[in-house]
Design a protein that fits this description.
By secondary structure, the chain is α+β, with helices and mostly antiparallel strands. The protein is built from 9 helices and 12 strands. The strands form 2 sheets. Strands 3, 4, 5, 6, 10, 11 and 12 form a 7-stranded antiparallel β-sheet that branches. Strands 1-2-9-8-7 form a 5-stranded antiparallel β-sheet, with helices on one face. This is DUF4331 domain-containing protein. InterPro entries: DUF4331.
């Protein structure tokens, strides 16, 4: 998955698990950037009576680096509190929830939003309400209206939303984690040859599941450093984005008369920049460590980017399909193309009209060149498909990041740094076989972009009599 349950310890702590991060120039407002961070992954819509929510004891943050050193220059911090309306009811709601102040809603969540920049904290809003989870047609009959009520335009220029959304990440988990099977190529798999005679139909394992999102739309002037111009080749146009979750260092469990308490400084327990970085690049033994470090420390993991394990596995799992990649692996040449894509950004001159380098500091961040305007006809393969506004230039909600990453690892991007290398024919075709059309909940054309969360009553769909 992009970053769902990607490390042993965070898999045990879903409320702090950052599962997906998106950063893109807003299509309807190109003078702003939209940042979306998802948490609490793999939510079963019918998971009551204690429906999913943010953690009151977790500090959620979206960070922006605008000078390329791997440290945040601007941070948006979200801190949540939960209130119970009826102390004597076990129910989430006792009737239809038609407004955010409905007396029928028994467990409400609010948040404080703080902007941290230049070493100073500025509280932008307090006690902003989240919408409820999408329980069903009787409990939440007009869910879209509740989302509108929970979307706020702040006096400082930001637009913000925090609450449940449909998980828009599409991936065939069941196949990928079964010894790296890609169903469109399953008959070529070293073990699949014994089982499959033809290609298979891919399955979106995350379809009809929900997440909790924090989404913020920010004027570009508030995230870019000041410069005289912002052309695509100007370093000031590119920002680096990542998200994190932190907990206080000590938690003391209460007894019969005292409540649990947390104390001490906040310690980072989860982070996410590029999709699949910790999931696929970082080895199992170092995943928990990676989650605790800032991007400025990612030079420690550069060796795993230069020689990714998956690149070595593809020729083994699919014999004869990736001969050129196999030869490249055996030559033990560091993958400078992947280092550029994941750790430093792509410098000007490699791709016509495109650059998103942030300098020499190796750091896992979503790098977004804000001078590249949104595409009128987005291509799901992003930069690989000729659409310079898509991944790895930031990430839009419909970008097919799994296919893009697979093709890059398979060698399709090596010619960017080595014109003599000829990618295998399969490198341009390898894919799990899914796209945005395999997400049941339609994406929205505007903020907060991710689709309406699936309700518990209709998921899975009832059988017709």
């Amino acid at each position: 998955m992009s970053s769902h349950r990607e490390a042993p310890e965070i898999a045990k702590d879903p409320v702090a698990d950052s599962s997906d991060l998106y950063a893109f120039v807003s299509p309807s407002r190109p003078d702003t950037v939209t940042l979306i961070a998802n948490y609490v992954p793999v939510q079963l819509p019918s998971g009551g009576p204690n429906f999913f929510e943010f953690g009151d004891d977790v500090r959620y943050e979206i960070h922006v680096d605008n000078d390329g050193d791997g440290y945040p220059d601007v941070t948006y911090r979200f801190e949540f509190t939960t209130e119970i309306t009826n102390q004597n009811s076990f129910l989430y709601n006792t009737g239809a929830i038609e407004s955010l102040d409905s007396k029928n809603w028994n467990r409400r969540q609010f948040y404080r939003l703080t902007r941290v920049a230049d070493g100073r904290e500025h509280v932008l809003a307090t006690k902003l309400p989240c919408p409820p989870c999408n329980v069903g047609p009787l409990s939440t009959p007009n869910y879209q209206n509740l989302v509108k009520q929970a979307t706020f335009k702040l006096s400082t220029g930001e637009k913000v939303f925090a609450g449940q959304r449909a998980d828009g990440f599409f991936v065939d988990l069941g196949a990928v984690f079964d010894l790296g099977t890609l169903r469109p190529f399953q008959q070529l798999h070293v073990a699949g040859k014994k089982l499959f005679k033809t290609e298979g139909e891919p399955v979106n394992a995350l379809d009809r599941l929900n997440v909790h999102s924090i989404a913020i739309q920010v004027p570009l002037a508030k995230v870019r450093r000041k410069a005289s111009r912002y052309g695509y080749a100007d370093r000031a146009s590119t920002i680096g984005v990542w998200t994190s979750a932190s907990r206080q260092q000590v938690r003391v469990l209460g007894d019969r008369v005292s409540a649990d308490t947390a104390t001490g400084p906040f310690v980072q327990v989860s982070r996410l920049g590029n999709p699949l970085f910790n999931e696929v690049i970082v080895p199992m033994s170092k995943k928990d460590l990676w989650n605790t470090l800032p991007p400025s420390e990612d030079k420690r993991f550069a060796g795993f980017v230069e020689r990714p394990e998956l690149a070595a596995l593809l020729p083994v799992l699919y014999p004869g399909v990736f001969p050129n990649l196999d030869a490249l692996n055996k030559a033990k040449k560091p993958r400078a193309d992947l280092v550029a894509i994941l750790l430093t950004g792509v410098p000007a001159g490699l791709i016509d009209g495109f650059a998103n380098t942030t300098g020499d500091t190796q750091a896992d961040m979503l790098r977004l060149n804000t001078a590249i305007r949104p595409s009128a006809k987005p291509d799901r393969f992003g930069v690989l498909g000729g659409d310079l506004a898509g991944f790895p230039n930031g990430r839009r909600v419909t970008d097919d990041v799994v296919t893009i990453a697979l093709r890059a690892i398979a060698g399709l991007t090596v010619p960017l740094v080595d014109k003599t290398f000829k990618p295998d024919a399969a490198a341009a075709a390898v894919t799990p076989g899914l796209d945005a059309g395999d997400v049941t909940a339609p994406f929205l054309a505007d903020f907060p972009f991710l689709g309406t969360p699936y309700d518990g009553f209709n998921n899975p769909p009832a059988k017709k009599s």
